[in-house]
Design brief:
CATH class: Alpha Beta
Keywords: Acyltransferase, Transferase
CATH superfamily: Gcn5-related N-acetyltransferase (GNAT)
Radius of gyration: 14 Å
Distance between the termini: 31 Å
Strand content: 15-25%
Protein name: N-acetyltransferase domain-containing protein
Pfam family, one: Acetyltransf_1
Order of helices and strands: EEHEH
CATH topology: Aminopeptidase
Strand order of the largest sheet: 1-2-3
Length: about 90
């Protein structure tokens, strides 16, 4: 079954995001034996509704190449600013 995590963060309100709320999705994973059954889609759709109910103006995530088609089908679009990380 998928694991889903999300959080909302408050930032400076803007015209496109009057509440200043952003959603972040992380740690979505499905056991290999349970893939291709719609579980991840159902979990992410529920999480997106949760963000909408809290007034999030956008939702951000990073995706593996295997998961990218799912997120694109849900309306996510690629951004020119990829996530950078430093492991110490």
């Amino acid at each position: 079954m998928p694991v889903r995590n999300g959080r909302t963060c408050r930032d400076t309100p803007t015209a496109r995001n009057p509440l200043g709320a952003d959603g972040y999705v992380f740690s979505v994973a499905t056991d290999p034996d349970a893939r291709r059954r719609g579980y991840a889609r159902a979990c992410v759709e529920a999480l997106l509704e949760w963000f909408r109910e809290r007034g999030a103006g956008r939702v951000r995530l990073t995706a593996s190449p295997q998961a990218e088609p799912l997120y694109r089908s849900l309306g996510f679009t690629p951004r020119p600013d990829p996530l950078l990380e430093l492991m110490l």
